[in-house]
Amino acid sequence: MSLIREEISIKREHSFRSKIDVLPHIEVPWHYHPEYELIFIEKSHGTLVVGDCIDHFKDGDMIFIGPNTPHIMKNDDVFYQKESEERVIAWVVHFKEDSFGKEFFLLPEMKRIREMLTNSFKGIRIEGSTKYKIIQYLKNLHSSDYSQRIIVLLQILQLIAQSEDLEYLASDSFVESFKQSSNQKLYQIYEYVSKNFQQKIELDEAAKVANMSKTAFCRFFKSKTQKTFSEFLNEMRINYAQKLLAEGKLSVAQIAYECGFNSPSYFNKQFKAKTGIAPLQLRGKSLDSIA
């Protein structure tokens, strides 16, 4: 398991990439790239991982991800079945910080967009009326050429920058640890946990992923993230539990087991310690309830 750098190819006549993907399923592994990425999922569903956030994605979702933030989308199993009729349709835009010149986003008029771009390292889910306006701009962008492409992209970025219909995905602590470390071992651990958090994870198993002894691993992880591995694992599980509780489809006990906790009572205790409220109080309610 390893985090890979995806190479984004951009045509010589363009300063950024805009495309529509029509695929049988998503195949990109756990990866990062130096480009900002805006993706509108017209048709598809599965699991989304951005940093230490694990979530679902579905038809109509829109995500904006900052440069070098590890992420992956994996379709639900039905997409990979033989003779599956499922299809992925996704509108994707990639651009670099210097696509329009090294100093462009430092201009005074770019202040709000610049602040939004800085926060995009956490990954942003775009919702509400903002999303629907951006969909129309994406359609315009796909049919535009020359300078009109830049104008439309800036209109999209301005919409995101002034919107309140945003949900940030990865935690602040993940972003800080990621900025301060380029250590491949840490990314391998994040990937391992994101794939296995719903099961029992022993400390020695995580240490093996990093090719370390348990003692060395504990020191390493704490120095990079400012938290113990157990704290990190519980936070990732609770973040996922919040999504499931807001959906309101499963009972609290079912969610506890779905998120990898072996005891609903221990789940309740950990959830309340992190959020300040009991899981039952959040079930079926917006995540804004704990903001």
Automatic annotation (TrEMBL):
- Name the domain of life this protein comes from: Bacteria
Q: Which InterPro entries match?
A: Cupin_2, Homeodomain-like_sf, HTH_AraC, HTH_AraC-typ_CS, RmlC-like_jellyroll, RmlC_Cupin_sf, Tscrpt_reg_AraC-type_HTH
Q: Where is the HTH araC/xylS-type domain?
A: 187-285
Q: Mind telling me which Gene3D superfamilies this protein's record contains?
A: Homeodomain-like, Jelly Rolls
Check the record and name the SMART domains matching this protein. Answer: HTH_ARAC
Write down the SUPFAM superfamilies for this protein, in alphabetical order: Homeodomain-like (SSF46689), RmlC-like cupins (SSF51182)
Q: Which PROSITE patterns match?
A: HTH_ARAC_FAMILY_1 (PS00041), HTH_ARAC_FAMILY_2 (PS01124)
Q: Does the keyword Lipoprotein apply?
A: no
**Any idea which UniProt keywords this protein has?**
DNA-binding, Transcription, Transcription regulation
Protein's name according to its UniProt entry: AraC family transcriptional regulator
Upper classification of the source organism reads: Bacteria, Pseudomonadati, Bacteroidota, Bacteroidia, Marinilabiliales
